[in-house]
Specification:
The protein is an alpha+beta fold. The protein has a single domain, classed as Nuclear Transport Factor 2, Chain: A. It contains four helices and six strands, in the order ααββαββββα. A six-stranded mixed sheet has the order 2-1-6-5-4-3. The chain starts with a helix and ends with a helix.
Protein backbone atom coordinates (compact mmCIF):
# COMPACT_ATOMS: atom_id res chain seq x y z
CA UNK A 1 0.00 0.00 0.00
CA UNK A 2 2.68 2.47 0.98
CA UNK A 3 4.45 1.88 -2.33
CA UNK A 4 1.30 3.06 -4.15
CA UNK A 5 1.22 6.24 -2.08
CA UNK A 6 4.90 6.96 -2.79
CA UNK A 7 4.35 6.30 -6.50
CA UNK A 8 1.47 8.77 -6.58
CA UNK A 9 3.59 11.42 -4.84
CA UNK A 10 6.54 10.78 -7.17
CA UNK A 11 4.48 10.92 -10.37
CA UNK A 12 1.98 13.49 -9.03
CA UNK A 13 -0.72 11.34 -10.62
CA UNK A 14 -3.85 12.23 -8.67
CA UNK A 15 -5.81 9.76 -10.80
CA UNK A 16 -4.35 7.07 -8.51
CA UNK A 17 -6.30 8.41 -5.51
CA UNK A 18 -9.59 6.59 -6.16
CA UNK A 19 -7.69 3.31 -6.39
CA UNK A 20 -5.91 3.69 -3.05
CA UNK A 21 -8.68 5.25 -0.92
CA UNK A 22 -11.31 3.12 0.83
CA UNK A 23 -14.93 4.19 0.38
CA UNK A 24 -15.16 5.04 4.10
CA UNK A 25 -11.79 6.86 4.34
CA UNK A 26 -11.46 9.66 6.93
CA UNK A 27 -9.10 12.64 6.69
CA UNK A 28 -7.95 14.66 9.70
CA UNK A 29 -6.60 18.00 8.49
CA UNK A 30 -4.62 20.57 10.47
CA UNK A 31 -6.85 23.22 8.89
CA UNK A 32 -10.37 21.81 9.25
CA UNK A 33 -12.01 21.39 12.66
CA UNK A 34 -13.87 18.18 11.91
CA UNK A 35 -12.89 15.04 10.03
CA UNK A 36 -13.56 14.85 6.29
CA UNK A 37 -15.31 11.58 5.41
CA UNK A 38 -15.78 9.52 2.26
CA UNK A 39 -13.72 8.79 -0.82
CA UNK A 40 -15.04 11.70 -2.89
CA UNK A 41 -14.52 14.40 -0.26
CA UNK A 42 -11.18 13.06 0.99
CA UNK A 43 -10.02 12.73 -2.61
CA UNK A 44 -10.87 16.38 -3.22
CA UNK A 45 -8.98 17.53 -0.10
CA UNK A 46 -5.95 15.34 -0.84
CA UNK A 47 -5.89 16.63 -4.42
CA UNK A 48 -5.78 20.20 -3.10
CA UNK A 49 -3.09 19.21 -0.61
CA UNK A 50 -0.98 17.57 -3.31
CA UNK A 51 -1.21 20.68 -5.47
CA UNK A 52 -0.23 22.79 -2.45
CA UNK A 53 2.53 20.64 -0.90
CA UNK A 54 3.94 18.31 -3.54
CA UNK A 55 6.27 20.72 -5.29
CA UNK A 56 9.88 20.09 -6.36
CA UNK A 57 11.12 20.72 -2.81
CA UNK A 58 8.78 18.12 -1.23
CA UNK A 59 10.48 15.11 0.35
CA UNK A 60 9.61 12.41 2.82
CA UNK A 61 12.49 12.50 5.27
CA UNK A 62 11.67 9.59 7.60
CA UNK A 63 9.20 6.71 7.84
CA UNK A 64 7.92 4.88 10.90
CA UNK A 65 6.05 1.70 9.97
CA UNK A 66 3.73 -0.72 11.73
CA UNK A 67 1.55 -3.58 10.50
CA UNK A 68 -1.28 -1.50 9.03
CA UNK A 69 0.06 2.02 9.09
CA UNK A 70 2.88 4.47 8.70
CA UNK A 71 3.98 7.88 9.90
CA UNK A 72 5.81 9.78 7.17
CA UNK A 73 7.71 12.93 8.11
CA UNK A 74 7.89 15.42 5.26
CA UNK A 75 9.44 18.76 4.49
CA UNK A 76 9.01 21.27 1.70
CA UNK A 77 9.23 24.97 1.00
CA UNK A 78 6.34 27.09 -0.22
CA UNK A 79 6.94 30.75 -1.15
CA UNK A 80 10.13 30.79 0.94
CA UNK A 81 8.41 29.32 4.01
CA UNK A 82 9.81 26.07 5.41
CA UNK A 83 7.09 23.47 6.03
CA UNK A 84 7.59 20.40 8.22
CA UNK A 85 4.95 17.85 9.06
CA UNK A 86 3.77 14.29 9.20
CA UNK A 87 1.27 12.16 7.34
CA UNK A 88 -0.18 9.40 9.53
CA UNK A 89 -1.68 6.78 7.23
CA UNK A 90 -3.69 3.70 8.20
CA UNK A 91 -4.87 1.10 5.68
CA UNK A 92 -7.22 -1.86 5.70
CA UNK A 93 -6.50 -5.51 4.83
CA UNK A 94 -7.14 -4.70 1.15
CA UNK A 95 -4.38 -2.08 1.18
CA UNK A 96 -6.77 0.88 0.88
CA UNK A 97 -6.25 3.99 3.00
CA UNK A 98 -8.92 4.20 5.72
CA UNK A 99 -7.49 7.02 7.85
CA UNK A 100 -5.19 9.90 6.93
CA UNK A 101 -4.03 12.48 9.47
CA UNK A 102 -1.83 15.46 8.64
CA UNK A 103 0.06 17.59 11.14
CA UNK A 104 2.03 20.66 10.03
CA UNK A 105 4.37 23.20 11.58
CA UNK A 106 5.24 26.09 11.98
CA UNK A 107 2.18 28.32 12.34
CA UNK A 108 3.28 30.51 9.42
CA UNK A 109 3.20 27.40 7.21
CA UNK A 110 -0.26 26.41 8.43
CA UNK A 111 -1.61 29.86 7.61
CA UNK A 112 -0.13 29.77 4.11
CA UNK A 113 -1.44 26.26 3.47
CA UNK A 114 -4.89 27.23 4.72
CA UNK A 115 -4.97 30.17 2.31
CA UNK A 116 -3.86 28.10 -0.68
CA UNK A 117 -6.01 25.05 0.01
CA UNK A 118 -9.11 27.15 0.67
CA UNK A 119 -8.71 28.80 -2.74
CA UNK A 120 -8.21 25.44 -4.49
CA UNK A 121 -11.17 23.83 -2.73
CA UNK A 122 -13.41 26.73 -3.72
CA UNK A 123 -12.35 26.19 -7.35
CA UNK A 124 -13.08 22.44 -7.13
CA UNK A 125 -16.50 23.06 -5.59
CA UNK A 126 -17.36 25.64 -8.24
CA UNK A 127 -16.35 23.22 -11.02
CA UNK A 128 -18.58 20.49 -9.58
CA UNK A 129 -21.61 22.79 -9.56
CA UNK A 130 -21.26 23.62 -13.25
Amino acid sequence: MLANWHEMIKTRDINMLPKILADNVVLHSPIIHRPVEGKKMVGMYLTAALHTFANKAFTYDREFLCENGAVLEFSTEIDGIFVNGIDMITWNDSGEIIDFKVMVRPLKAINLINERMTALLEQYKAQQQV
